[in-house]
Amino acid sequence: MHTAVNESGTGQERKAPGRPRNAQADEAILDAVLEMLSSGQSVAAISIEAVAAKAGVGKATIYRRWPNKEALIIDAVAAMKGALPVPVGESVRDDLIMLVKANRSGRAHRYSKATVCLLPEFIKDGDLNHMYQAVIEPRRDVMRAVLRRGIETGELRADLDVELTLLMIQGPGMMQSMLNWNPNVAEEGFVEALIDAILRGAAA
Question: What spans are recorded as compositionally biased (Polar residues) (predicted)?
Fold first, then answer.
């Protein structure tokens, strides 16, 4: 089962024009899924019926929007991530800080536990993992482009390993946000400190 990813980065299939969508219902449905995942429920334990009841909508409302549960869950993850950030392009440091903060704000911050609960599901289910990769890779591509631009402008080392640096940027933020491994780290200033630490080794 593979679901096409639309321009907004979600996993929802395109459908023929029909009844206009209700943005408020969409928000309620996606939030219901994220709340259920954040409470520790597995993908297998979540049903369309349960989501409909929690969101206060009918099952038909959900099925008009999503072909199956997996597509709904991936769209919920995409909604949690938010819109694709657009770097300013003046400073590698500023752009990296903006991109990391964008991944830690809004729904992503509110429902951080949802990602923790989904990770085992992505490992077990290849199709679900494929859909998830289609959501996050465009965001990773934006960060790759910033790093490559930094190499071209001389802000970053010419021999910089872009993929390894990308992993170094995303890994600590994800672990701290999801698991709070270092409870002594204040949220304010964390992203700046992380990027500055990485740039001490990555800068030209």
Answer: 1-11
Is residue 128 one of the residues assigned to a domain? yes
Q: Which residues, other chains included, contact 4 with Cβ-Cβ below 8 Å and sequence gap of 6+?
A: 11, 13, 14
Prediction pTM value: 0.75
Per DSSP, the three-state class of 61 is helix
Kindly state the helix (H) or strand (E) to which residue 77 belongs, with its residue range: helix 69-81
> For every one of its 204 residues, what pLDDT tens digit does the chain have, with 9 covering 90 and above?
434 444 344 444 444 444 456 788 999 999 999 999 888 888 888 999 999 999 999 999 999 999 999 899 989 988 888 888 899 999 999 999 999 988 877 777 777 778 777 888 888 888 888 888 888 899 999 999 999 999 999 999 999 999 999 999 988 877 776 666 666 666 778 899 999 999 999 998
Cβ 109 vs Cβ 191: under 8 Å: no
How many domains does one find in the chain? 2
Domain carrying residue 36: 23-78
CA 181, CA 148: separation in Å to the nearest integer?
30
Instruction: Assess whether 33 and 110 both reside in one domain.
Output: no
